[in-house]
Structures are given as C-alpha cells and as structure tokens.
Design goal:
633 residues, alpha/beta, globular
Length: 633
C-alpha cells in the first residue's frame, strides 16, 4: 500500500495503533517523514536534535512490534525520545516542546501514558524496567518491558547495578543498547571502546537461536534450567568466536551488533526475540544526528544547537555588541589561568566538558583534565583521591546531577576535609530542560554537611574571585554554584582577589527593609529595589556571598537595625538561605518579620528562565511588590 498523494503518512499516525496498521514496506517512509518533522520543528524551536535523529528507526520499530502503552518502553536518556513523543499522541503539540505549559523535552508519565518512566538524566532505565518486568510477572501479566539505554548512559554505575541484578532474578527484560559512540561529547572509558570492538557471528546467532527453539520444543528449557542453558550457550559462543561477551558474562543473552537504521530488519529481529524467556540485550549501532549532514559531522555541536537554518545547516546565533560571557566560559578560561600558575590544578567533568567549558583546560593541559563519563559519584571520589595526594581538583558537575554524588561528598570528601573545589554549574532554575535539570536543591542538601564552604558569585568577577579564593585556601572543600547562561559584565576579566571566607557585603544602604541575597539573583534584587524606591521604599541590599559559613557579624547588624527582612535565593526556600537567616534570628533573640523568596515546595515546570522567575515570584517586579507590601504593613 503506497502513501496517499494528498496526505503524508505521518499525518495519519496519531497513535502507535495507527502505525501498526501500516505494511512494513511503508516504514522507511515513515522514518523519513518523522526525521524531517523533527528537523523542521527544532530549527525554529530549539531542543535536543542529534540524539533523537539517531533513534528514529528504532522508535518506529519498537512501536510497530510492541503493544504500547501496555508494553512498556523506558527511555534512557530522555532526549532520545522526540520521535516517540510524536508517534504517541503529541505530533500536533510537538512545536510547543520545552515551552511554558507545552510538552516536556523528556519522557514524563504525567504527560502521557506512553511515557513509562521519567527520564531526565541517565543510567536508570535498566533498574526501572527490571522492576516493571518483575512486577508484571508477579501479577501474571504477559507484558513486554524494554529499556532503551544509550547516548553514553551505559557508563553510569546504576546501569551496571541493574545489569548485575537482572541476571540474578527471573525476568524477561529486553535491553536495547543504542551505541552511537557518543554521550553529549564522545564517550570515554574502556567500556566505550569495548562496545565498538564487539563482533558477533550472525551464523552463530542463528544456530544458537535454532538450538534454543529446539530445546524449548522438547521442554529442556524451563525456569529452573534457564541459567544453565544460557551459560552453556555463552560458553559455546566464546569457544567458536574466541571472544567472551561482557553482557553474556552477566548471563544476559546478547544479540548484535546490528544496523540501527535498517527499520525492516529491526522489526524482524524484535519479533524474533521479543518472546524469548529471560533477560536479553540487543546491541544496535546508530549514527547520532542521522539524516542531517551537519549533525552527523559534528554531533556534539548539534546535540542541542539552538535555532538553525534547516536548508543550509547554518546555526542562527544572535550576538549583541559587548555582550557578557556565559558563566561556564568564565569558569573555563579562569581554570586555565589558575592551571598555568600551579601544576597541581586538575579538572574533572562527568561526560559534559563542552557543557561546562572544561574543554579549554583539555586543550591547554590535556594531561590534567579527566572526563570520567556519566559517573558523578566516581567523579567526586576520583577527585577526592587526587586531593588526598596533593592535587587541587576542580570537579565540575551540573547542580541537578550532583544529587547523585551526595553520599560521596559527605563520606569521601567532607569527612576528610579535603582541599578541592566542587563547581556546580546550572545552579538554580535552568529553563527549558525543566524539573529534572533545575539545580534548586544544592543549597538545602549541602548546608547541613560539615567542613564545606558554600558560596555563590554575584557576577563573573566574583566567580573568578571565588575560584581564586578556593584555590588559595590551605584546606577545606569549596562549593561554588553559578547559573546557566550569561552574566552581567562584558569586561569579565578582572584581576582576581581573595574574598574572605564567611564574609558578605552591603551593596546598598536603606532604612525600611533589609534584602539579603545569595548569588546572581542579587542583580534581580537591585532592579527590584530601584522600582520600589520610586514609590518611597528604602531598602538595604546585602550580598551574603557565602551561605556557609554565613556572615554572623552582618546578620547581627541586620537583626539590630531592621524589623523587616527579605531573603532571595535561586533555590528551594526550604533549607537554604532563608532558612539559615530564620535560624540565626531565632537563636539570637531577634524577632523581625522575615519574608523568604525562592523556589516554592513543588517541582517547577519547563519554560524560559524569565518566565519561571515570574512563576516563582523571583523577578524584579514581584520582588518590588513584596517590598512595597512589607513597608505598608
């Protein structure tokens, strides 16, 4: 059946049930249209391009073979799943991707029943899918569960914990390893090279499959003997191919590697293996950015390229005259400056050197920069080992992802009072990536930990100063948090100086109300105070700089002089700066009225940062209204 001439095939697919009505011969055309639709929309509405282009054929094959949403597909990482969203009832809503009140850039069960599990980071799919598979078995449900892991996620420790457990418990989990030899940047580590080098005899796979069916037919395979049969098959394969496969070492049946862009063959293969008993792994090879030449040639640059010309491949970047640098670039350049002065300085990012601008150090001192892959816990403890032997590590991790290394920060770093620097990029509300990426919890979860120094810069100059202060310290672990995006100063390259630990500063005098801020949100407070002053409000502004140790001398001054205090932080208000100020006032007998402004006690949706600031009452207009109301009262 050919596609109708007046209507594209994709326009007739509202849900996977519509896809499954099509003959398999039409699926390549579906893939072509799906890929082009992703390119069309993302050229105008930025998102994660290259990863989803690489999974088009896999997405179509999965929904064609499996009865979704009854069968579960768990995506890992989530930015591979744009095609999945389009095929599952969100085709017409796709242009709202990552916009306020639009659809999320990541799978989310609250958005669609086809999104089996939330997926904003990496490496959780095998564990979650295994839980679903075991639950289905306990409920006597014949449900297929598929974990799609790729884009570097197999480097995460949680993935290996899931693999290890999958081999030890009865389940029929299908793991699909999307091997594009990439994360956001190129994958690193011995496993990455191992995956590239795996070879498998197709003739042997067919023979083993035939043997499997034969033994099953004569009832020599059952739940009690499955593991012994698998081990026999794995030993036979190792003998014939002179290789032992990592996954088969976990007693997981392995198929591949196969071409992940041959949709017809993927459909056949998935039909062949979907009803096999026991855990299985299908290894597919794909090209990140497939079908769009610029993205194929530079997948890192086109991971999330912003707006672009879909005809020419030219990225549309608007530069303002004398515009400020991004905080991450100020960090990257400053780290190189410090490394030029001291050979003990090293840099460690987990998998995203481009995203945090560690690439500058990698270029200047490649032997002193270590990308450890998507492995935040390892990144922190690896840094701790470096620090224990006298190096000065700058470990750069996105704030949201540092949550995965919390135990390591406490046990391996703080407990030993190690001299190292944890740089939390993307701190605060990050915008369109939404709740899985908002870095809003770090102040609250790190403040109770002893031996940490926690600071946030008002601007780029202070970021450089804090990095210099952290480097110059004789001991102690510094945590420096800063936001995504550009700063305030076009002339960001100041002469670095030490900012005394635990000391804040008054930025503006006032008499009616004291405003206490931490980090770049202080610039929003300055604008708010200027607006409030036009209506007769006199507000003092204090930049605390350090959350821990907090400036108690400054707080005593505020407690004695003011009956009204406003605290502002780009983080959750429970446990952060506002909580610290309330605790101090209560402990020292001060009784001011304190209004805390920050992220409320709920997960904040995706949208632009200015939109989310308004949503949380953190924009200058909202802050100005709070100041006026407090003075009126």
């Amino acid at each position: 059946m050919a596609a109708s001439s007046d209507k594209h095939i994709l326009e007739r697919i509202d849900y996977p049930a519509d896809l499954r009505k099509l003959p398999v011969e039409t699926l390549p055309e579906v893939c072509t249209e799906l890929r082009q639709y992703i390119i069309d929309v993302l050229s105008e509405n930025p998102g994660h391009l290259a990863a989803s282009l690489g999974t088009v054929e896999l997405t179509v094959a999965l929904h064609y073979v499996f009865d979704t949403p009854y069968d579960r597909i768990v995506w890992d990482v989530g930015h591979q799943a744009y095609g999945h969203k389009i095929l599952t009832g969100r085709r017409d809503a796709f242009p709202t991707l990552r916009k306020l009140h639009g659809i999320s850039g990541f799978p989310n069960p609250a958005e669609s029943e086809y999104d089996a599990f939330i997926a904003g980071h990496a490496s959780n799919s095998i564990s979650a899918a295994m839980g679903m598979s075991v639950a289905s078995a306990l409920k006597d449900e014949e449900r297929h569960v598929i974990a799609v892991i790729g884009d570097g996620a197999m480097t995460g420790g949680l993935a290996f914990e899931g693999l290890n457990n999958a081999s030890a418990n009865p389940n029929n989990l299908l793991i699909i390893l999307n091997d594009n030899n990439m994360a956001i940047d190129h994958s690193v580590g011995g496993l990455s090279q191992y995956l590239v080098d795996i070879t498998t005899s197709q003739a042997y796979n067919k023979m083993r499959y035939d043997v499997y069916r034969g033994l099953k037919k004569i009832k020599l395979i059952d739940d009690g003997r499955r593991e012994s049969i698998l081990r026999f098959n794995n030993s036979l394969k190792a003998l014939l191919t002179q290789q032992h496969n990592l996954f088969e070492g976990f007693s997981i049946r392995y198929f591949g590697p196969v071409d992940g862009h041959n949709v017809g063959y993927l459909v056949k293969l998935l039909n062949d293996i979907k009803d096999m008993q026991g855990p299985k792994l299908l290894h597919i090879k794909t090209i990140k950015g497939k079908g769009f030449k610029p993205a194929e040639e530079s997948a890192t640059e086109w991971h999330a390229p912003g707006r672009f010309n879909k005809e020419t491949g030219e990225r549309i970047v608007v530069h303002e005259l004398n515009e400020p640098q991004r905080y991450q670039d100020v960090f990257g350049h400053t780290l190189v400056e410090l490394a030029e002065k001291d050979k003990r300085i090293v840099g460690i990012p987990p998998a995203m050197p481009t995203g945090c601008s560690m690439t500058y150090l990698m270029k200047a001192f490649p032997e002193r920069a270590f990308d450890v892959g998507i492995a935040e816990g390892h990144a922190v403890t690896f840094s701790a080992g470096l620090a224990k032997e006298g190096m000065i590590p700058f470990c750069n991790i996105y704030s949201s992802f540092m949550q995965r290394a919390y135990d390591m920060v406490i046990h391996d770093v703080a407990l030993q009072k190690l001299h190292m620097v944890l740089c939390l990029d993307r701190a605060g509300l990050v915008g369109e990536d939404g709740p899985t990426h908002h870095g809003v919890f770090d102040l609250a979860y790190l403040r109770p930990v002893p031996n940490l120094i926690i600071a946030s810069p008002l601007n780029e100059w202070d970021l450089r100063n804090l990095m210099y202060t952290a480097y110059s310290a004789k001991e102690g672990t510094f945590v420096i948090r800063y936001p995504r995006g550009k700063g305030e100063k076009a002339d960001w390259h100041n002469e670095m100086e030490i900012l005394p630990v635990g000391k804040g500063r008054m930025l503006k005098e006032g008499t009616d109300v004291a405003v206490l801020t931490l980090g770049p949100v202080g610039n929003e407070a300055l604008k708010a105070i200027a607006k409030a002053e036009k209506e007769g409000v006199s507000a003092a502004l204090y930049d605390m700089i350090y959350l821990k140790p907090i400036d108690e001398e400054l707080l005593h001054e505020v407690g004695r002089k003011f009956k009204r205090i406003v605290t502002i932080e780009n983080g959750v208000i429970k446990g952060g700066l506002g909580s610290a100020v309330l605790e101090f006032m209560a402990d020292n007998g001060y009784t001011p009225r304190v209004k805390r402004i920050g992220v409320p006690d709920r997960f904040i949706e995706h949208g632009s940062v200015p939109e989310l600031f308004r949503l949380c009452g953190m924009d200058s207009d909202s802050i100005a209204e709070v100041l006026k109301e407090m003075v009126k009262e």
